[in-house]
């Protein structure tokens, strides 16, 4: 074979190999083939593991709850510091006004304001009322207890949620009951009901924690189409109105720019915490307005652990 024929034969062989590696002869076909293969594998895995989206949604709900608890603790620390010089009801009212402004702005940005009337209806209104009473009671106790004690008692809210869920017919295994029992023993160690230093505000804090657990259970009753941000608005409005009424009885005092700054910062943490707690317990797709890809839309839509992947749509629409 001549050198020219050898070169042409080698070129033809290389072209055949390239065509096999690149469908339709397009460069980069290997990348697309791998991508298509990965997508196919992902679809097959999803089809073979129907619990995958549910687990993903559950994890997202857990992360939202953890983040909200952290934000609540920062808010509690700020308002407890401010309570040294401000009446409790006045403090809660001012913080509530600023938090309401923040969440109303978020609701406007998300396009939920045309449905603002839903904050005063049905389960949304009931949830807001329970939350307002629980929040005010917790803050009153917080101002009279060490921050660590009040926070530890308040962290028992998941224990009360499980107990209340069992009362409502949810199945709770033996290992969970054991964990709940240990948790309640921890609460008793914190409250120390028979010690000389017993503080009645510890009981107030426990009552507030039970109400917060009821609030989170009521959240599951809120219709699926109600946007999370509107549930958050109902929270802040209810707490603010209740605190405003109490402040007329307790009285007001002048406050300075530093105290106002503390309450502004606390309001920002509070608004974010409220929204995340709604996401964690109601499973609303508050991120849909920003066209989040399917997996994250499913994560945000973890209501009742369903975790169904849905096409992202405008906020509040199904």
Please tell me about this protein's structure:
With 318 residues, the chain is mainly alpha-helical. The protein has one domain. The protein has twelve helices and no strands. The longest helix is centred in the N-terminal third of the chain and has 31 residues. It is globular. The N and C termini lie far apart (71 Å).
- Look at the helices and sheets and give the structural class: mainly alpha
Chain oligomer state: single chain
C-alpha Rg, in Å?
27 Å
State the helicity in percent bands.
over 70%
Rounded mean pLDDT is 75
Shape: globular
> Tally the helices: what do you get?
12
Percent of residues in beta strands? under 5%
Separation, N- and C-terminal Cα atoms: 71 Å
| SSE succession | HHHHHHHHHHHH
Q: What is the number of domains?
A: 1
Q: In this structure, how is the largest beta sheet organized?
A: none
Flag low-confidence runs: 2-7, 14-48, 284-318
Number of strands: 0
């Amino acid at each position: 074979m001549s050198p020219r024929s050898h070169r042409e034969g080698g070129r033809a062989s290389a072209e055949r190999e390239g065509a096999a590696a690149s469908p339709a002869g397009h460069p980069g076909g290997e990348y697309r083939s791998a991508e298509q293969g990965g997508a196919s594998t992902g679809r097959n895995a999803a089809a073979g593991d129907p619990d995958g989206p549910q687990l993903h949604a559950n994890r997202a709900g857990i992360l939202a709850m953890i983040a909200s608890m952290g934000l609540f603790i920062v808010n509690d620390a700020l308002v407890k510091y401010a309570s040294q010089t401000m009446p409790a009801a006045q403090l809660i009212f001012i913080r509530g006004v600023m938090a309401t402004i923040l969440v109303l702005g978020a609701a406007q940005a998300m396009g939920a304001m045309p449905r603002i009337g839903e904050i005063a209806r049905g389960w949304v209104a009931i949830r807001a009322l329970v939350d307002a009473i629980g929040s005010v009671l917790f803050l009153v106790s917080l101002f009279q207890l060490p921050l660590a004690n009040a926070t530890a008692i308040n962290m028992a809210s998941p224990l009360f949620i499980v107990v209340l869920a069992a009362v409502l017919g949810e199945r709770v295994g033996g290992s969970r009951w054991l964990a709940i029992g240990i948790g309640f023993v921890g609460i008793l160690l914190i409250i120390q009901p028979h010690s000389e230093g017993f503080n009645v505000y510890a009981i107030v804090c426990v009552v507030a924690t039970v109400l917060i657990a009821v609030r989170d259970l009521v959240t599951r009753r809120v219709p699926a189409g109600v946007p999370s941000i509107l549930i958050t608005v109902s929270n802040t409005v209810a707490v603010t109105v209740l605190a405003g009424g109490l402040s007329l009885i307790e009285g007001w005092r002048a406050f300075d720019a530093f105290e106002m700054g503390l309450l502004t910062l606390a309001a920002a943490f509070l608004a974010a915490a409220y929204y995340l707690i709604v996401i964690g317990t109601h499973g609303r797709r508050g991120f849909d307005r920003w066209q989040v890809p399917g997996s994250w839309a499913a994560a945000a839509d973890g209501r009742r652990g369903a975790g169904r992947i849905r096409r992202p749509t405008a906020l509040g629409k199904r």
